[in-house]
Amino acid sequence: MQQINDHINKSKNSGDNKYLTFVLKDETYAVNILHVKEIIEYGGLTHIPMMPIFIRGVLNLRGEAIPVIDLTARFIKEVTEVTRYTCIIIVEISGTSNALEIGIKADMVNEVVDISADQLEPTPKLGSKINTAFIEAIGKINNNFVLILDMDKLLDLEQLAILEEVAQMNREEEEYTPVKESPVEKEGILAESSGEA
Question: Which CATH number fits domain 2-192: 2.40.50.180, 3.20.20.60, 3.30.830.10, 3.40.50.920?
Answer without folding.
Answer: 2.40.50.180
